[in-house]
């Protein structure tokens, strides 16, 4: 019997015709919007060659503006991903604790930081603490505020991914751990959490896109990231719109690569799971405990 879950029926001839019509209409509308934008840019002389020439003829556009801004974005995103991962795993496991004195406060923290907009946390962290604190230097304060805000928000999202990932596992996983004498906490750490993280890996990689895009909010607190660099570049060369468009293209390219990476990881996990199922389909009968603990007989021990 097939284990695939069918979420909806295959569309019939009328539905396929309707989808095709809607697709054509959507493409036409999108092309019309692109034409309108290009026309407005042409009327404002934003498509003139001299507006775009610095990106080709002047190396300082890249060495003094765009590449340093890209480095600032990458640095903030990388630090935020590391700290958000730690935050998410710790609070995700805390929410799964059987001790209510641990799970309830952890749930309050996660839900609070998931609800507060990232920009508000950045502004509050910078102007409310780091800008007037001796903990970090004035040059590092914007970076600290950006990383803290991204860590709290994305860490809370990862904590929810951890919790939902563990809940999505078959009940037999925890029962198998308890049956061999493991405590609930040991079962969570040794059996459930590794499997949940593996299953959530595509979603975790996809969260990198969110971190990278949200790092652009640092422009509000003068953090020198890519959007801030594009703003400064536009002021220096009097080509604000082209500068923002180039920065947008860089963001799109990086996010596209991250999306492709997430899809590649998802495909690898599916192939890996399929190969494991094929290797774990022996002639011998698999016991309930082995099924629950994810162990197949596979031709002897």
TrEMBL record:
Domain (ABC transmembrane type-1) ranges: 70-262
Taxonomy, superkingdom: Bacteria
Topology term for the membrane: Multi-pass membrane protein
UniProt keywords, alphabetically: Cell membrane, Membrane, Transmembrane, Transmembrane helix, Transport
Subcellular location(s) per record: Cell membrane
PROSITE patterns: ABC_TM1
Transmembrane regions listed in the UniProt entry: 20-38, 76-96, 108-129, 141-162, 199-223, 243-262
Family (UniProt): Belongs to the binding-protein-dependent transport system permease family.
Protein name as it appears in the record: Glutamate ABC transporter permease
């Amino acid at each position: 019997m097939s284990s695939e879950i069918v979420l909806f029926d295959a569309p019939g001839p009328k539905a396929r015709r309707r989808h095709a019509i809607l697709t054509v209409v959507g493409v036409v509308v999108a092309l019309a919007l692109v034409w309108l934008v290009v026309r407005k840019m042409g009327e404002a002389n934003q498509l003139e060659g001299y507006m775009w020439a610095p990106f080709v003829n002047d190396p300082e556009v890249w060495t003094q503006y765009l590449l340093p801004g890209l480095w600032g974005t990458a640095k903030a995103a990388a630090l935020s991903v590391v700290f958000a991962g730690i935050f998410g795993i710790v609070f995700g496991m805390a929410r799964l604790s059987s001790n209510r004195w641990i799970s309830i406060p952890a749930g309050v923290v996660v839900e609070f930081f998931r609800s507060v907009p990232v920009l508000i946390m950045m502004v509050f962290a910078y102007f409310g603490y780091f800008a007037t604190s001796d903990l970090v230097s004035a040059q590092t304060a914007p970076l600290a505020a950006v990383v803290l805000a991204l860590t709290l928000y994305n860490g809370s999202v990862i904590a929810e991914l951890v919790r939902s990932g563990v809940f999505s596992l078959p009940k037999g996983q925890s029962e198998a751990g308890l049956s061999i004498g493991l405590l609930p906490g040991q079962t969570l750490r040794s059996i459930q959490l590794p499997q949940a993280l593996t299953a959530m890996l595509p979603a975790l990689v996809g969260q990198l896109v969110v971190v990278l895009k949200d790092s652009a909010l640092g422009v509000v607190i003068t953090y020198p990231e890519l959007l801030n660099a594009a703003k400064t570049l536009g002021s220096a060369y009097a080509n604000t719109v082209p500068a923002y468009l180039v920065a947008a293209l860089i963001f799109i390219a990086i996010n596209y690569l991250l999306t492709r990476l997430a899809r590649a990881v998802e495909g690898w996990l599916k192939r890996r799971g399929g190969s494991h199922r094929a290797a774990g389909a022996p002639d011998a009968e698999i016991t309930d405990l082995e099924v629950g603990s994810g162990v197949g007989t596979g031709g002897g021990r």
